[in-house]
Design a protein that fits this description.
Order of helices and strands: HHEHHHEHEHHEHEHEHEHEHHEEEEEEEE
Distance between the termini: 46 Å
CATH superfamily of the largest domain: Aldolase class I
CATH architecture of the largest domain: Alpha-Beta Barrel
Number of helices: 14
Structural class: alpha/beta
Shape: globular
CATH class of the largest domain: Alpha Beta
Strand content: 15-25%
Strand order of the largest sheet: 7-6-5-4-3-2-1-8
Radius of gyration: 23 Å
């Protein structure tokens, strides 16, 4: 927020009033006004998102092709696969779940052919399995699928914010994904729209994690350039992700894993308990599309490992009902999840490198060190415990997060890292 300082002057009556008004108006034109609760501390005051939320979202696997049976099947699979117990608790139903027409009173309702039992019954089913329920809305007049012409109707929440917040709270929702989905509006419009829903959710009295995306169909990338930490628990920092290593389409289309890491690397100061930078959902186990090959095993490790280093939400996007053992084992790697969920809540930072990068994330106990190889050939790395911020000690316990192997070091950290792969070490001083 820009603050205007008024020099001391002898102004009286109307002259003083006119001067102040002119200064206020000039400042308002150059800045987005802040609301009374637009602070990271306010977003975390209910204990929501104390660590990055983990869960599953329907979009990457199913797009608009969702229905009640699929969502119930996913809920069962999250339990049976061990993903729920590994921390993946939020089951989020994305776009296309709703009737294209609101009810006579303007209320949202589920598409009767896709969700014949209704959303409240589906929420109960999800809750009974020890999961939390999430749902999708848009602050525009249409959702993303409606804007793109992939789904009929115009059921965005614009003008219905209080009503829609009350509806999903009454249904028992625990998480809202709120997606801008419009080329119209400047930054002030986006801030006002997201603030309206934030305040409406708070007014319901139900604790609902609030996840926003300001980038959909915007020519600029306001999710990256504006700090949203006082308006949401999660805020998207990039355009949509796709199951690829690199697309080079920053600002013009879907991004690959390496593209997104470069964007998110600069935003570490915004992240912490109550608000997390959201580099989009996990593409692990999701097939490639539109000529893209999908992720190799090394790239999938980098995807999960670097999302953990960046304290990112871990929202799986694969069809968990049919995933193979390798996908399940990677997604449920407890050492990597522990890095992501560390309660210190600090996003990792790149300390050196371009093609081969060294990242450090402070933990409650010790540090996580990632050696991220963007290049196309195996590379060696050497670092020291002093370089990664550890205090002098008689020795250090080093644990490889991928294999679980442990060893002691007197201070040297070395790794050979394959192309597009990431070594992930957790390092703690010995007592």
């Amino acid at each position: 927020m820009h603050r205007v300082r008024v020099a001391t002057a002898v102004l009286t009556g109307r002259l003083l009033l006119v001067a102040v008004l002119l200064l206020v108006l000039a400042g308002a034109a150059a800045a987005v006004p802040q609301g009374p609760d637009d602070s990271p501390a306010a977003m975390g005051r209910d204990g929501l998102a104390a660590t990055p939320p983990m869960g599953w979202n329907s979009w990457n696997a199913f797009g608009c092709d969702i229905d009640e049976a699929k969502i119930r099947g996913v809920a069962d699979a999250l339990v049976a696969s061990g993903m729920r117990d590994a921390g993946y608790r939020y089951l989020v139903v994305d776009d296309c779940w709703f009737d294209p027409r609101r009810g006579p009173d303007g209320q949202l309702r589920a598409a009767p052919d896709r969700f014949p039992g209704g959303i409240p019954a589906l929420v109960r089913y999800v809750h009974e399995r020890g999961l939390r329920f999430g749902i999708y809305l848009s602050p525009a007049t249409r959702t993303c699928a409606q804007y793109a012409g992939d789904y009929p109707g115009a059921t965005g929440s614009r003008g219905h914010e209080v009503q829609d917040a009350g509806t999903i709270a009454a249904w028992g929702a625990d998480y809202l994904k709120y997606d801008w989905c419009s080329p119209s509006g400047d930054l002030g419009d986006l801030v006002a729209g997201f603030r309206l829903m934030r305040d409406a959710l708070r007014a319901t009295g139900r604790p609902i994690v609030y996840s926003i995306n300001a980038n959909s169909h915007q020519d600029a990338n306001p999710g990256e350039t504006h700090d949203w930490s006082g308006l949401a628990n999660l805020s998207r920092t990039t355009q949509d992700i796709t199951a690829a290593w690199h697309t080079g389409l920053r600002g013009a289309g879907c991004l690959g894993i390496s593209d997104i890491i470069e964007v998110n690397a600069a935003l570490a100061a915004r992240a912490g308990p109550g608000h997390w930078n959201d580099p989009d959902m996990l593409e692990i186990g999701v097939p490639g599309t539109e000529g893209l090959p999908g992720l190799t095993p090394a790239e999938a490790r980098t995807h999960l490992g670097m999302w953990a280093m960046m304290a990112a939400p871990l929202i799986a996007g694969n069809d968990v009902r049919s995933m193979d053992a390798a996908t399940r084992d990677l997604l449920t790697n407890r050492d990597v999840i522990a890095v992501d969920q560390d309660r210190l809540g600090r996003q990792g930072r790149r300390i050196r490198g371009t093609d081969v990068q060294v990242w450090v994330r402070p933990l409650v106990e010790g540090v996580a060190v990632a050696v991220y190889n963007r290049g196309d050939a195996t590379a060696d790395m050497a670092a020291t415990t002093a370089e990664v911020g550890l205090p002098p000690a008689r020795g250090y316990l080093v644990r490889d997060a991928w294999s679980g192997r442990q060893w002691t070091s007197t201070g040297a950290l070395t790794a050979a890292v394959g192309a597009h792969d990431t070594a992930l070490l957790v390092v703690r001083p010995l007592p």
